[in-house]
Amino acid sequence: MVLYQPSNGYCYNSDTHFLYSFIIENLKKFKNIKGDLLDIGSGSGILGLLVARDNDKLNLNQCEVQEIFQEFSSRNAKCNKIEAIMHKGSFLEYKFDKEFDICVSNPPFYHSNVIKSENENLKIARYNDSMPLDKFIEKVSKILKNSGKFFFCYDVKQLNEIVFLLNKYRLNIESLQFVHPKKEKDATLVLVYARKNSKSLLKVMSPLSVFDKEDFTSEVQEIYKNSSTHSIKVEI
Fold first, then answer.
1. First CA to last CA distance, the chain
2. Across the chain, what does the average pLDDT equal?
3. What pTM does this model have?
4. 187: burial class by Cβ within 10 Å (0-12, 13-18, 19+)?
5. pLDDT tens digits along 106-130
6. Fewer C-beta within 10 Å: the chain N or C terminus?
7. β partners of residue 64
8. How far apart are CA 48 and CA 52, in angstroms?
9. Where are the alpha helices (DSSP H) in the chain?
10. What region does 213 belong to: left with phi over 0, alpha with psi -120 to 50, or beta?
C-alpha cells in the first residue's frame, strides 16, 4: 500500500501498525465482516485503508478536521483503489447521517499539560486538547450501532480513565493488548477493543514487545510485513 504523507507534518508511526494488527486479530473470530467502517481522525488514511483492504465488504468512511489531511486521506484512498467517503470537520462536532458497525482510531492522546510542538498540524494530531478522552468516547458510543465494535490505542497511563469512561458509555472492553518498548520495560501503549452493550468477558492478549536489544522483535517484523506499506513524503 502506497501512502503519501507530509514531510514536515504529522506522519503515521508504529502505533498505527500495531493497532491495525490488533484489529485484524480480533476480527478473526467473526465470519462475515461487513457494514460501515469509520476511521476517526484519519490523517493520511492508513488505519482505515489497511482495515478496509483486508475486509473488502466494509464501506470505508474517514473523518478528519485538518484540510491538508483530508486531502492526503482522499488521495491515498484513490491511489490504493479503495472507495472512501470523507467527512470533513471535527469528529466531536460532526453530525453523521448514519450509525457505524466499526469505529477505529489512533487519536491524539498526549496529555494537555506536556510540552507541545510549535507545529499546528502536530499539535492537533498529538495532543488531546482537540479531542478530550471523555468527549471522544461519548461521541463514539452515540454513533455506533448496537453491538458495534470500537478499536483504538491510547497512553497506557490513562487506562484507569479509559475503563471508567467506556463503562459509563455502555462500551464493554472485550480485548486489551499492552505494548512494551522492550520485554523488561513497562508498557507505554494499550490497544483496546470495546463493543457496545456487550456482556462478554475481557481477554488480555499476550503483550507485544517492540525491540529485542536494538532490533525489532519477530512479532513486530511480522506486523510490518503484513501491513506492507510504502511511504512517500510530500512537501506541504
1. 21
2. 92
3. 0.92
4. middle
5. 999 755 555 444 544 444 444 455 7
6. C
7. 88
8. 6
9. 14-27, 46-54, 67-79, 120-126, 133-143, 159-168, 218-227
10. left
